[in-house]
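#data-curation
PF: Archiving a pair of folding outputs for the training set. Convention for this channel: one message per protein, sequence first, structure tokens after, nothing in between. First:
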Amino acid sequence: MTEIRKRAFVGIVGLVSAGLFSIGCGSSGNTTGTAGSSGSAGHAGGGSTGSAGTTGTGGTTGSGGTTGTGGGSALCTGGPLTGAPLVTDFSDVTATDGGTPGTATIPGKGGISGYGGVAVAIEGGHAHATGSVTAGTYAGVSLYFSNCVDATTYTGVQFTLTGSFGTCDMLKMGVNFPQDEPLPPASGHGTCPASPGTNCYGPGSVFTTATTMVTFANMSGGGAVATVTSDAQNRLTGIGWGFHGPAAAGEAGAGGCTVDFTIDDVKFF
């Protein structure tokens, strides 16, 4: 996963080379205009001059081809999430209490993982995230979906947070879409190329441990998808809580932060 992707709050790693660029086909070429009719001949012996023929109709311009989706992968179409509006209360996670961090999968839905120095384990019926984030590193927790989710009937995401984010800054909670995901097979649905300067991060909203819900309308600042449009809302690939390790004032490379928090009862509302 790239640093720019980490800002998207997605813990999916492993980028793969792009496929062919899809080119849309144009419509049929211009139609031929109809020929003008011949003028009628004048009468013999000084008859009147024949009238001019009618000008033929010009051909219509063919429509342009449809622009193909970049990255060699078509955008997925969202479907219903099993058990929605509940995303997970972590009772359905396959990892047992105290299980190895990074192995928490949610059958039929996806899974949850940490990145940037953060590990996630399922403990006491919730997701427990811990770790040390070095200065200048973007880190967080990603709750990802196996298939694109249609969330157009919902207003946002509700959840419970407890614990501490230490001195971490840039706390943002957001959602992701194929355009913000790395190219397959890293995420399975991503269309964002890994080329330098490409903004592969999704829109988000500031959060604290006191935050219990965030609306899609309040999420902004994304790269390929700047805000959560209705089209984007039909293609959710994940939910994330991200933050950044600050540098100590006047000390290059020093700083960072330590986190220890839990996430529970994630649902759409």
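PF: Second:
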Amino acid sequence: MIILTQEICVLKGASKTEKYKTLIPQLNSLVGFEKDQIANLSNIIAALKMAMNYFWVGCYFVKGNDLVLGPFQGFVACTRIKKGRGVCGKAFEDNQIIVVDNVDNFPGHIACSSESKSEIVLPARTRLGEVFMVLDVDSDKLSDFDDVDRKYLSQVITIIESLYN
């Protein structure tokens, strides 16, 4: 029997920047041999959760005016979000990255877990600039996302967009 696996390696104790710099090339390699979009996206999300120790990470796909849950890692999640509702729905509506330092202070925040404290949501776009998916990353710590996350998670979005465009 042959078992093929690929492990994601980041140094424990490394800075956030160092972890991302180590992770991004591994994600590119991880998706380089598989053609199935959902399989690749599932592995990207699992790698992000494992390497960065996020509380929750997953995606929602655009279906009309709703976002519908896709592959994720973490607690059970909301399955459908209306455009403009919560952080994910707002990122979809505005077609912009949203960073929330304290989800309790975000108007209309949808709490899938009361343990989520901060969040970053990034839209993935078609070649025409239309949002087809959002990447949602939650932390159980306040103010856990910054410009470093914005920069490197944007690179992850570029990888995801390449799978769909």
